[in-house]
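User: tokens in, sequence out, please.
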């Protein structure tokens, strides 16, 4: 009985202390009215910094890292299809940043970016055929050259700096649903309306 009484008293004291602490923290502060009192303004809210979680002595944050070796292979293959085109490979993942400033990159996926100068942005059949040829190159890279999992291939069809079409093709979706599709059908499957 005595043990229960002490336990109840401990809980009551803890709750009371928490209540008093919250009252002190949340108490209104008497401040003089601002010179613009009564005028409502709308301010934009800046995005909050990325939350960094700490595990094993480091904090993780999203990061990108170029893959020079894979970029060279992809760019060479794409330029064989069209000398005016260009391509690069990039890894997406997390940097594990330590207190002393050094970091370790951990790749989660490999993404590809392909640019093709074009004269006309309405040639969906040609765009779809181009996408198919490039995607076939990408999925033939040995798995050990892909860091993490397959990400996407982002296609840029560029008529000018201001006139272009950009579409992303998730590689695993392409392999599962569209590997045999070409031309306008493939293009329409992935291009945003």
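Assistant: Sequence out:
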């Amino acid at each position: 009985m005595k043990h229960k009484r002490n336990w109840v008293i401990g809980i009551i004291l803890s709750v009371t202390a928490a209540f008093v602490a919250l009252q002190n923290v949340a108490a209104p502060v008497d401040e003089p009215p601002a010179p613009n009192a009564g005028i409502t303004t709308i301010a934009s809210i800046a995005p909050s910094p990325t939350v960094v979680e700490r595990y094993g002595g480091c904090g993780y944050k999203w990061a990108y890292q170029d893959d020079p070796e894979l970029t060279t292979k992809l760019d060479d293959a794409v330029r064989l299809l069209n000398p005016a085109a260009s391509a690069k490979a990039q890894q997406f993942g997390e940097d594990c940043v330590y207190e002393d400033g050094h970091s370790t990159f951990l790749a989660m996926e490999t993404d590809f970016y392909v640019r093709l100068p074009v004269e006309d942005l309405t040639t969906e059949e040609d765009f779809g055929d181009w996408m198919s040829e490039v995607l076939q190159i990408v999925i033939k890279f040995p798995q050990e050259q892909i860091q993490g999992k397959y990400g996407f291939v982002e296609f840029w069809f560029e008529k000018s700096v201001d006139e272009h079409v950009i579409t992303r093709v998730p590689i695993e979706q392409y392999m599962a649903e569209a590997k045999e599709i070409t031309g306008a059908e493939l293009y329409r499957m992935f291009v945003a309306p």
